What we know:
three-stranded antiparallel beta sheet, alpha+beta, 34% strand, single chain
Amino acid sequence: MKDKQIPKKNMEKAIKYKKLPGRSRGLVSGIHELWYCEDHMIYVISHNVSEDYKRFYYSDIQSFIIRKTITGIIFNVILILSVLCFLYIFYISSMLDSWISWVVIGLFALNFFRSLYLGYSCNFYIMTAVQLRRIKSINRSKKVDSFLKKIMPLVTNAQKKTEIQPKV
């Protein structure tokens, strides 16, 4: 697992971060990644010449919001229709014996099964008292599951420590 060190201002020691699952790339939006250490997570948005950081302390997190989307379903329908269209085109043109036709059909089918393996598509949000931030690097159900397995114990421990103890 890759580690990333980001120095804190006015401190000699750098904080060692570990990468969380998920990575999103966009032409305009840049590369989105989540990193974590013992008391907070950092959301890194890398552009060509700059990086933006959003820090989430575990004690400040109020909720994780997962909203199922139909993007994955639409993508899968398009892939299946593409496989069927190419099968029909290659059948009509008598090219089903050609290896090229099976490579084309296989690529679409492989992407379909990969999409099924990754799980349903979703939008993932982290809510604190001052912000609701969409985390673009976590966009499939398998990524959400592995993210929550790593982060929930840290969030629970941090929030147990910050609970106000009643005075007796």
